[in-house]
Amino acid sequence: MQYNFSSMSLKETFTRFARVELPAPRYLAPLSAGIDISASGIKLAVIKERLHGLELIGYGVGPLEIGAMNGGEIADRTAVVGAMRMLAKEHNIRFANVALSESRSYLFEADVPGHSKNEWRTAVEQHIDEFVPLPPSETSFDITPTDIGGELTHVAGVGYASRIIDESLLALDEAGIEAVAIESENFALPRALLPVLSDETVLIIDLGRTTTKLVIVEKRVPRFATTLDIGGHALTLAVIKYFGVSEEEAKRVKAERGLVGGPGNEEYLAAMLLTVSVIKDEIARRVEYWQARAGEGTGHYPVARAVLVGGNATLRGLAEYLETNLHIPVELGNVFVNLASRDHWLPPIEYMESLAYGTAIGLALRNHEN
Prior knowledge:
By secondary structure, this protein is α/β, with parallel strands linked by helices. It has helices at residues 10-16, 77-91, 117-125, 128-131, 162-175, 185-193, 232-243, 247-257, 266-293, 318-326, 351-354, 358-365, and strands spanning 31-38, 41-50, 53-63, 69-70, 73-74, 95-100, 106-113, 139-147, 152-161, 178-184, 201-207, 212-218, 221-228, 305-309, 330-332.
């Protein structure tokens, strides 16, 4: 399923609640690039279509200092533009699909009349202030149908303040990158992690540097999302405080010891669990809420499993710790699930590192789904 959150004419598209579908230039068709702008850095993924399937042929990150992105918004445009420009030059990228932060989005669902997307959009537009807590004139949104049939169609939608989109587009312009499409990261990430025909209800836990994003998806469509203001850097700070070491040394210790117990590891583990238990409790609260309301005439299903991704998802013992406390299976994600079989190619990136590129890969995959 293709989620058409926008098109080439983005500035006009979002302002007028209209969509103009423009294809990528023919000479760019074999290549697809995705750019994920996050608090920890700008991540780029480039996909090429081969006879045997899709391959990740390029990737990279433009590091950002903490504070360059603030609450999903660009706080230091010079730093963000510089990181994007560096990646674009290094990988010879002029066009890309780009993600907007979950923390500034508003997910909603509605039953609307009509038999086409234009009719559904018109119906939503007439009541947009009921779904997005922003002035209608300052709101941009898009929708995708989840259940077609009968007099009403159920749609899932996402809304943003138009200024968020304008700021992102301005930064891209300054970096010399043209947006082919722009969408919520909540739609991009499931596209990378779940098979095309997946009908599961899955919790995606994206553990980043300063935030943890939670997205519950059904048939790869986000139905619930929230951002926790705590991430893997808090665990690094716990190690620094406990051992009195530098940040680099703390990262090394964290990677080596993780959350795995052992002789002489008791005090360290207790210090780590003081922080990670905060993340666990927040996740558990959301899961319990969803599981309690699923099946009660809501049309939703209980979460079957959780998928752990993000730059800090590789902490040893974390998946097992969360599985024990959430009472659902928890596994590390596979961002290559919709790419070519390993019988034909090998990813150019290490598996553990790849977990930070889920959103960027999902964005690049957008051009290859109908």
